Each structure stands twice: as structure tokens, then as C-alpha cells.
Amino acid sequence: MYKTLFLSLIFGISHFCSSGAKPLNVLFIFTDDHAYQAISAYGSNRNKTPNIDRIAKDGMLFNRAFVTNSICAPSRAVILTGKHSHLNGQLTNGQRFDGSQQTFPKLLQNKGYQTAMIGKWHLKSDPTGFDFWQVLQGQGPYYNPPMNTAEGVKKITGYTTDVITDVTLEWLKNGRDKNKPFFVMSQHKAPHRNWQPGPKYLTKYDDVEIPEPATLRDNYKNRLEPASTQAMTIDRHLSTSDLKLRAPGNLTPEQKAQWDAAYGPKNEAFEKANLEGDDLFKWKYQRYVKDYLRCIDSVDENIGRLLDYLDEEGLADNTVVIYSSDQGWYLGEHGWYDKRWMYEESFRTPLIVRWPGVTQAGSKNADLVQNLDYAQTFLDICGVKSPKDMQGASIVPLLKGKKPKDWRNSLYYQYYEYPGGHSVRRHYGVRTDRYKLIHFYMLDGWELYDLKKDPNELNSLYGKKGYEKITSELKEELTRLRKLYQVPEDTRPLVRAPREPRKKKKG
Fold it and tell me: What digits encode the pLDDT tens for the residues 394-424?
């Protein structure tokens, strides 16, 4: 047995790197709910992200990267397994991920890679397939996070974005076997709701006005009922905690003093203004988006720390750096915050890859890619063969500037979590280069968008004269994709599932 294991390890090491050079390391930096609209490399008019931009300047930026199911836990499960939600079992946030199933970290481990998972996990079960893991409990707080480890709970004081980077750097410096290649997942809670900025950025943007999106005051006409019956508007659905009208309850005395010094005067001015109507709406938008951007600033700063470490240790040339998020996010488009929809701002996610000597510096890609592709891409980068039951496609050829002749020309999406937070109806659909067809299947209602003529998706063309042919073609393509991906009919009842009891943590 030991001889077999040894030979397998040796074989794996000899086949690590697809370039034929020494084994590649991979640093996968992953955030939660980072809108591509809040990255300057993607053309943001709201903020600057110089360190994320460093990755784009030296690598490839994907302009059309999407998810299969725009919600936290399902997206993470898709990335781990390379399979759609209905096959990996993670349809919604409320389910527990089956860690016994095949995942790409386990496959990398089998080939001699050291794997680490640090930060936001959000899959209820403990991580598997990792030599080291230290993860937030559930969503985790923005300050002073208790973190689960294989040895129990570790309580840490500090701002969570900084903490996750600290743990990542400590493992890279002192925790790994430096004779082996590594794959590390450094996954941030930020900028997830409720957008609590770090100490350095509490007052940033106080003296500026962030531009409003063109669709901030969307009236939801010319679309089906779901667009107007959601519960995710900036105007009506943000809480006092979201708006920082009360301070977090878990701050240290020093943190509380910093928080009160920053928000006290701003909140006092707000109370005195006694705003109403559109003036109040404008204030809510500015408060929300500034706090969101402040969280991004901390993320970007910490990405810089990781990139600097790679440079200082001479690892940059042999480490593939990948930046992405679990889905997109609304920064006021359609009057919304949150995600879940198949509409572009939610469906689309940032994806930037730096692969020295392989990806052309400063290049951009416009092919249709999806988080379904990440597992096979990671394996391909590391020279590990992908199992046939994974459903995506490696983007390594795209990273090398070579588009395969059979590359996809359509994407499949399905959202399952209704009833649930924000009351977004269940739907599935297909997106091509130009068109998007969405089926709200519990209502048996359809929407059709021409993304060239209507990039903001304000006017559904379904049932309109002149669109019969494209509608028929898209329905055929949707049927093909559902068959290809083995998608069953969703017959779950429209009732809210009971919450699973929380397990008592050790330590």
C-alpha cells in the first residue's frame, strides 16, 4: 500500500504543471458579493482598487464571467465540485454541504499539493480536502471573529478582512511545507451585508458624492411581477444596522471609540436634517454605497499585502493569482442591494487571472465563462486531470489566448431560494452573447431581453411581435442545456423550510 501511495505521489509531482516547468502555486482570492462595478479595472466611476488592478495589469480580465446560482453557499459549492447546484446538493444557503463528495482540493491533495482554506466558508459542514483550514462561523462578524479550526474555536481580535489576510500570510510563511506546491483559498467576508468598514476607512468618502446609477429609481414596468415584489430596495428595506444608525455590539472599547468618532457626527447631522421623500432616499443610497466601498478598500489593501509577499519571497513568477467573487451585487441599480437575480449585475461576477509567462499582461477576454469552470481550471493549471463528471470547462486555453472551436455560446442559470430572504422568485434561464431568456417557473412567466439594445434590462420583449423566432431558438437552447446538465424539475413546495439546529462549537 505504501509503495503504491509513494509512486502515486511521485507521479503526481512529475505532472503538476501544465507548462512543463516546476510545479505551480495557486493563490485564489475570493470575496463575497463584490460587484464588478466597484473595481476600477472594470471601469468603476465610484472607487479605485489599485491592488486588484495590479492583477489585471499583469494578467487577464474576464468581461463576461458569470455564476450558475447567485447566492453565497451554492456558488461556493459549485466552485468546489465543478457541478451545478442540483448535482452537488447545495440549492440554497440553508442546506449543509456534503463534504464527502468529490472536490477539486481533494484531487489536488492526491497529487501532492498542499491545500489551505482561510476565511469565509459558509457551508455549515467542516471543510474537507484541506491540509489547513481556519474559517469564519457562518457569515462571521466584521470585527473580532471567532474562527473554526480542526482543533476547535479560535477567538481573534481585529478587523476580519485584516485577520483573514494575517492567517493566510502566517500559513504561507510558517505553516506550509515549502518543498511542496500550494493551493490556498483566501476568502473574505467583505463586502457582504452589513458593510461595516475597517478602522482605517471609517471616514473615507465623507466629503464626496458617489454617482447614482441610471436605474436607481426604476419603476419595474414592462417586466413581470417578481421585479416589483422583491424585498431588497435601498429605499424601503435597509435596516438601522445597515445604515449604521446603531453601532455593532461586538466592538472592543477602542474600536467602539473609533466607530463613534466617525459615525456619531454623521448620524447627528442626519437626525437634524429630518429628511423625507427623495432626499431621504438619496441619503440612504450615499450611506449604503460609501460603507460598501469602504469595505472594498480594506479588501484591496489586503490583496496588496498578499501580492507584496509573493514579490518579496520570489514566488510571484511561479504563482497563479486568481481574483473573483461568489456572485455580483447591486449598487443601487434598479433601486436594489443584494443579488439572486439572473439580471446582469447579480449574474455577472469579477474574474481576473495573473499567470506570469502565460497570460498576456493587460489582456481582456469577452468569452462566456462561469464559476462552473473554476474547478477544472484549477486542476488544469496544476497539471491534474479533471474527472469526466465535472460539468464546466477549463479556461486555461483562454488564458493562453487560444479559444477552443467548441467553446460554449450560451450559459445556464437557476435560482432556487424562494421563499427566502428578499423574496426573489425561483427562476432559470439561458444567456447568449446578445439575448437572455428567463423563466419564472413557479409562475410560468417569461422575460426576454435584447442585451445589445437594452443593457439595463428594463423592457421584456417576450411575446412582442418580431421576437417569435429568437424566443423559439432560446427555448430550444434552454431545453438542450437542461438536458446536458441533467436538471430535474424543481417540485419543492412553496414553504419555508425549518432551520437546522445549531451545533454547539468546541472551545
Answer: 999 999 999 999 999 999 999 999 999 999 9
What the block records as the C-alpha cell of 221 is 414596468
Q: Residue 423 region, left (φ>0) first, then alpha (ψ -120 to 50), else beta? A: left
- Model confidence at 15: pLDDT above 70: no
Q: Nearest to residue 180, comparing CAs of 132, 117, 115?
A: 115
C-alpha cell at 317: 513568477
Q: DSSP state, 360?
A: P
End-to-end CA distance of the chain: give it in Å, rounded: 37
Answer yes or no: is pLDDT of 503 > 80: no
pLDDT score at 14: 42
Mean per-residue pLDDT of the chain:
94
Per-domain residue ranges for the chain?
Answer: 2-196+289-409
Secondary structure of residue 451 in the 3-state scheme: coil
Looking at domain 2-196+289-409, its CATH class is alpha beta
How many residues appear in the chain?
A: 507
Q: Where are the beta strands (DSSP E) in 310-434?
A: 319-325, 351-354, 363-365, 369-370, 410-415, 427-432
Residue 331, C-alpha cell as written in the block: 449598487
Lowest-pLDDT range of 4-18, 69-83, 169-183: 4-18
Q: Find residue 153's DSSP bridge partners.
A: 148
| Segments in 184-337 forming alpha helices (H) | 226-229, 253-273, 277-312
Measured distance CA(150)–CA(132) in Å, rounded: 8
